[in-house]
Amino acid sequence: MGSVLSTAIAFFLIANPIGNSPAIIALIKDFDFARQKKIMLRESVYALLLALFFQYVGEVFLNQLKIENYTLSFAGGILLLLVALDMLFHTRPASEIAVGQKKDPVFVPIATPLISGPGLLSMIMVFSQSEQNNLEISLAILLAWVGITAVLVSAPYLNRVLGNKGLAALEQIMGLLVAMMAIDMIVSGTQLFIKTFR
Questions:
Q1: Which of 143, 163, 190 has the alpha carbon at shortest distance from 18?
Q2: pLDDT at 101 (0 to 100)
Q3: I need a labelling partner for 108 at 20 to 30 A (CA). Which of 2, 94, 115, 181 fits?
Q4: First-residue to last-residue Cα distance in the chain
Q5: DSSP codes, 109-120
């Protein structure tokens, strides 16, 4: 259960619901509160289905390509580091994401890339190739999804209580944790590569 929980926390951090909540609020601010809640729940379900799809279909796809574990770990670490840098330095303002989005945003851009983005989906594929079984990874995705959905549904309250600066500070702390995970993956991939060809 400990590995499931740690994997779920990793998925939650990578999804970055706290950092993405201002962009999501900006996308749905023209709707009444009840409709906002409905959109949040719907998009989080879409994001969950996409994550589970990538877990199972991604595993088959990677097996067909015969990609080595060290390659996955190294490439996943680099992608995750880019996600962490985005979280730390705010290279993607909410106003840019929300521009031109006045209609009900179905699937894009909330479900993906704001919830199930490239970083999270690639990490799910990396974990699907690890020693953990598929059930454990699915449980971790579900646990992370519960946390992500709870944050998204309460996003308007969080924004009111913490403000943009408070949310930005939390995002940077999460970004630092994700950066450490990324470095660990890169190091693990390098070690596996050396061990394979030694």
A1: 163
A2: 54
A3: 181
A4: 34
A5: TIIIIIIS-HHH
**Cβ(165)–Cβ(57) below 8 Å:** no
Q: Could you report the per-residue pLDDT of 15-70, keeping only the tens digit for each?
A: 999 888 888 888 888 888 888 889 999 999 999 999 999 999 887 887 788 888 78
Residue 182 lies in a domain: yes
Residues 177/185, Cβ–Cβ less than 8 Å: no
In a domain, 101, yes or no: no
pTM: 0.86
Residues 127-157: tens digit of each pLDDT: 887 777 889 999 999 999 999 999 998 888 8
Find the domain containing 139 and state its range: 4-27+34-96+108-197
Q: Please report, to the nearest 10 degrees, the dihedral formed by the alpha carbons of residues 188, 50, 40, 139 taken in order.
A: -60
**Is residue 102 a part of any domain in this protein?**
no
Q: Which residues contact 24 (CB under 8 A, 6 or more apart)?
A: 40, 110, 114, 152, 155
Structure tokens at 122: 């690639």
In this structure, the dihedral spanned by the alpha carbons of residues 135, 136, 141 and 147, taken in order and rounded to 10 degrees, is: 130
Report how far residue 33's alpha carbon sits from residue 104's, in angstroms, rounded to the nearest whole number.
14
Pairwise pLDDT comparison (76 vs 51), residue with the higher score: 51
Number of structural domains the chain divides into = 1
CA-based nearest residue to 90, from 168, 159, 182: 168
